[in-house]
Amino acid sequence: MSETEPNKNNPNKNSQFNLLKLLKPLASLQLTVVLFVLSLVLVFAGTLAQVDNPIWTAVSDYFRSFYVFIPNQVFARFCQTFRWVSPTAQWPGSFPFPGGWTIGGLMLANLLAAHAVRFKFSTKRIGIISIHAGIILLMLGELITGIFAVEGNMTIEQGGVTNYLELKETSGFMGKVNGPELAFSDLSIPKKEKVVVIPNHLLRTGGKISTPLLPFDIEIIKYMNNSSVEEIDPEKTEGGVNLANVGDGVRIRANEKNEASGTDKDQKIDLPSAYINLIDKKTGKSVGTYLASIWLSLSSLKPTQSVITEDGTKTEMALRFKRSYKPFSMELIEFKHERYLGTNTPKNFSSKIKLSNESLNENRETLISMNNPLRYDGETFYQSGFLPNDKGTILQVVRNPGWIMPYLSCLVVSFGMLLHFGMHLNTFLKKRAISNA
Amino acid sequence: MHKSNPIIPAIAVILGFTYFYFQAAQPSDPVEGFHIQEFAKLPIVDRGRVKPMDTFARVSLMVMNDGFQTFKPDKSKEYEIDKRQPAVRWLLDVMTSKFSENHIAEKHKVFRIENDQLLGLLALQPRPGLRYSIEEFAPQIGELEKAGKAADQKENAKKDAFDKSVLQLAHHLQSYMEIASLQTPLVIPAGKGEDWKPFMQAALESRNANQADPNAGMNPTVSKFGEMLLSYLKNEPLNFNKALVEYRDLITKELPVQSEISGFEVFFNHFAPFYHCIVVYLFVFLISCFAWVTAPVTLNKTAFWLCILTLLVHTWALGSRMHIQGRPPVTNLYSSAIFIGWGCVLGCIMLEAVYKNGIGNIVGSVTGSLTLLIAQHLSAEGDTLEMMQAVLDTNFWLATHVTCVTLGYTATFVAGFLGIIYVIMGLVTTTLTPERDKSLTQMIYGVVCFAMLFSFVGTVLGGIWADQSWGRFWGWDPKENGALLIVIWNAIILHARWGGMAKNRGVALLAIAGNMVTGWSWFGTNQLGVGLHAYGFNDQLAWGLTAFWLSQLGLIGVGLLPRQYWLSSRMASKTISIPAKLQPKQA
Fold first, then answer.
1. How far is B64 from chain A (nearest CA, A)?
2. Of the residues B124, B159, B186, the one at which a domain ends
3. Which of residues 393-412 of B touch A (CB under 8 A)?
4. Residue B498 and residue A414: Cβ atoms within 8 Å?
5. Between residues B297 and A1, the one the model is more confident about
6. CB contact set of B576 (below 8 Å; sequence gap of 6+)
7. Chain A CB within 8 Å of residue B315 CB
8. Are residues B84 and B16 in the same domain?
9. Contact B343, B302 (CB under 8 A)
10. What CA–CA distance (Å, rounded) separates B234 from B199?
11. Chain mean position to CA B80
12. CA distances from B174 to A265, A320, B148 (A)
C-alpha cells in the first residue's frame, strides 16, 4: 500500500497548513510502529506479572493505568518458566514504562492524526478506513469497560432467595472495589435491616475508628489481605496466643497468607481476615476482641456474629464483600450439574431461577446455563460456579455499557480487512495473469 | 528451462496412492482363531466418551509402556509366534487375568521403568527398552508401596525424579488393576435411565436381581460378555466368536450409530493416517530439494501433485476425527497441531499454484511434517479425542473462534517459514535473484495479511465468546494476551513495511520473529500457568520451545549479516562487475 503524502504545493490556507505541519510528526508511521512495539512489551510484561499477582492487580497496574513500574522480577519469572535460571532467582529493581491508557491514547491520537494528514477519502480507502474505525471502536469499548463496568457475584442457595450482588475487584474504575468491608447490622426493627459499613481502606489503615452510628468504637488490631483459617482447641495455646477472646475467633484462627496470584490454580481471589477490638462507648471497656473473616461469612451456617454491649444492644457483625442491593430478587428453584458419562468432569451447569420484581409486578421462571446468560435490568447474569455439594449456584453479574462495541468493531474490521486485502489480491492476481500470458 | 514431463508426476502420485492404500488395509482375523479384530470394534465408555475397545486398549497400553500401541509377548502356550501383538490382545489377557491359572497378563513386559533408583528398588536389571512385567517386580511390590506413600506425602515442588517415577508406576499399576478387576472400562450399555456400567458391577447387579426374582433371568449383554471372557480364558475360539457375534448383535440393535462409529474408529486407529502423511510429506520435501539441483519443472510438479495427494489424506483424516467426535476440528492442543499443519500445507499449495517456483512445496512439506510430528508427540499423553470442560462445550464458538485463531497461527507460521527460506536462499545459495527476492517478499506480505485477518477476527471472536459466557469481553488472561501479541506482531510487520522501515529482508526477518511470538502463544502461555508448580510442567515442551526460539534467533542473527556476505548478492554483484571491467578494453 502506498500512502500519498499531502501535496506540498497545495495552496492551503495558512492556518490549516500550520495545523497539518503540527500533526505530521504525530501522524507518522514510525510512531505507529514504536507504539505497537511498546504495547507488545506491555502486554507481555502484564502477562508475566500475573504469575505473582492477582489478575486484576496486573490489569489495573499495567493496562488501566498511565504508567507502570515493571519489576525485573517478571522477566526472571519468564526465564524460570523455561528453566533457564534457578527457580529461586531474584532480579531486583524495576523500570518505568507507559501504561495502557498512555499507549492506547497515543495510538488513538496517531491514528486520528494520520487520517487527518495523509488519508484522502476514496473508494480505494474504504477498507483501510473501516479497519481503523473498527479499531477505534474496540479501544473506546475497552475504555468504557475500564471506567464503567461493574462486576459482581450473586450466590443463591438451593431454595433460597437473594436480592443483592457482591461486587468484585474486576469492576471498572467507577465501581472500583478494593476488598471486603466490615458490616454491622441492627436487626431490632422487624423486616428492616439498618446497616453501618466500615469501608475497606479504613480497615487497611488500622487504628481506632469511631462513629456516632455505633454504640462502640472499633480498634483494628490486625488486618490480613489474604488469609487461611484453621480450627483450634480453645484450651490449648499451641501456635502462639490467640488474639480473639470472644465469638467464632475462640475456636478458629486466621493466619496471614501471601496474596493470591492470577495463575494460581486453586485460589484466584484474596480472602481477608481481621482481628478487631470493640470498645463500649458508655463504659470505655472492651466488649471483646473478635475475628472477622471472609471465611466465616462464606460458611453458610451463620455468616454473622452477634455483638452484645452491656446495655443489651445486639448488633450483627460480618466482614463481607461490598454489596449492591437490587430492586428484584432471585430464588433458586433447581441447580443442575451434568457430568460426562461415568466421570466427574462437568458437562454443563444450569440454574432454574424464579425472578421476582414487586415494583413491576413481575414474577417469572427462567433458566440460566453455561453460554446461556440472562439479560435483565441492564445487567447480565451468567452461570459461573456452584456451592460445594451442589447446594447452590453462583452467578456472575455484569453491567457494562460498552458491551456492544466489540461486536460492532468485529463486523467493521472484518469487512474492512476483507475489502482491503481482497482488493490487493485481486489486482495482484490480474497483474500476474497478464505477465504470465 | 526444462520441459515438463507428465509421466514422472503421475508415477509419483500412483506410488503415493498405493502406499496409502496398503497402509489403510485392515488386518483380518483367522477363521479358526479368536476374532480379535471384531472384538476391538465393540463400543465401550471410558473418560466420558463412547469409543471402541481398540482405542481404550491402545491408549492404556501406550501410557503404560510409553509409546507403543502393540506389545511383544514371550513365546508361550498362548503365543506361539514370537511377534508383536495388537493392544486388544493384551486387554483381553488383562481382563481375564484374575481367573486365569497361568496369569499370562502378568508376564507381558509392558511397564516402562526408566529411573535407575526405581529399578534398583524393584531389583530389576536395566535392559534395552526398559520394559518390565509385573511378574518380574512382584516380589518387591511392598517396597514400591512404601516409596509411593512417602512420595505422595511430599509437596509437589519437593518431589524429585525418583518420587515422580514411583508415583507414575503406581498410577499405571492402578489402571492395570482396574482393568483386571473389570471395573474399567464401562462395557455394559445403559439401560433406560441408567449410566453405562463396568462389567463387574453389572454382573453383580444382574445376579442379585436374578436371586430376588428367578424369573427375571440374567441381563443378556452381561451373560454374553461373560461368555466371551470365559471362552477366551479356556482358549475356545469358536465359542468366543459365537458369543461375540451374539453380543455384537445385541449392541448394534441398541446403539446402531455408536457401533458404526466405533467400527470406523478402529479402522482409523489402524490406518494411522497422520503418521503416514508425515512420511509422504518428507518425500515431497526431498523431491522439492532435488528440484533445486536438476529438472526443476518436472520435479516441482511431482512434489506439487504428491503434496496434494497427501493433503487429501490429511483432510480426510481431519474430517474423520470430526465425524467420530461430532465437533469442529480444533478441540485441544493435539488437534490444533494437526489443524495448523493442514492449514499450512493448504496455504502453501495455493502459493505454489500461483508462483510455481517450488517454494510453496518446500514450506508446505516442512511445516506439514513438523506440525504432525509435534502432534504425534502430543498424542502420547492419552486419548486425543478427549472430552472438553463445560465452558468449551459449544460447537458454534469452537467452529468460529478457535478455527479462526488457529488459522491465524497457521498463516503466521507460513510467513515465518517463507522468511527462513528467504534467508537460507539468499545467504548460502545463489538462487535469490532479484526476481525471486521480489516474489518471495510478495508471498510473505500476502501471507502476513491473511495472518492479520484471521488472528484479529479470531481474537475478537474469542472476546465475544467470553462476553457471551461470563460477561467480560477482554480479561487480559495469558492465553488471550498471547493471541493479542500475534495480532500486534502482524500489525508491526505490515506498518513497518508501509512506512518503509522494513524492506524485503526486514519483512522476512520480522516474519521469522513472528514464529517466536506464535510459539509463545501456542505453547508458552500454557507453561506459564503451571510453570511455578511442579505438576503438569512439561519439561520436554519447555526444552523444545527453547530450542525452537534459539534456532529462530540464530536465523534472524545470520539474516542480519551485511549483504556482502550473502552468496546471492555476491553472485549478483560479480555478474555486474565483470562487464564493467571489460568495458575499457572494448573502448
1. 21
2. B186
3. 393-394, 397
4. no
5. B297
6. none
7. no
8. no
9. no
10. 19
11. 34
12. 26, 45, 12
Chain length of chain B:
587
pLDDT in tens, B436-482: 899 999 999 999 999 999 999 999 998 888 888 777 788 787 888 99
Final residue of a structural domain among B161, B186, B211: B186
Check CB contact of B506 with chain A, cutoff 8 Å.
Answer: no
Q: Which of B390, B528, B532 sits opposite A348 (nearest CB)?
A: B390
Q: Which of A294, A369, A367, A376 is nearest to A327 (CA)?
A: A376
Domain count, chain B: 3
On whether both B171 and B107 belong to a single domain, the answer is yes
Judge whether B196 is closer than 8 Å to chain A, CB to CB: yes
> Within this chain, do residues B20 and B92 fall inside the same structural domain, yes or no?
no
How many residue contacts between A and B have a Cβ separation below 8 Å?
A: 191
B455 & B381 share domain: no
- Location of C-alpha cell 507460513: B414
Q: Does B463 touch chain A (CB under 8 A)?
A: yes
Who's near B469: CB < 8 A, 6+ residues apart?
A370, A371, A373, A382, B391
pLDDT band (50, 70, 90) for residue A237: low
Q: Is residue B370 part of a domain?
A: yes
Q: How far is B546 from chain A (nearest CA, A)?
A: 7
Confidence grade of residue B584 (pLDDT, cut at 50, 70, 90): very low
Interchain contact, B457 vs A413, CB within 8 Å: yes
Instruction: Please check whether residues B42 and B157 belong to one and the same domain.
Output: yes
CB spacing of A403 vs B473 below 8 angstroms: yes
The conformational region for residue A384 under phi > 0 = left, psi -120 to 50 = alpha, else beta, is alpha
What is the ipTM, given to two decimal places? 0.84
Interface of B with A in 363-382 (CB under 8 A): none
| In-domain check, residue B237 | no
Same domain, yes or no: B55 and B14: no
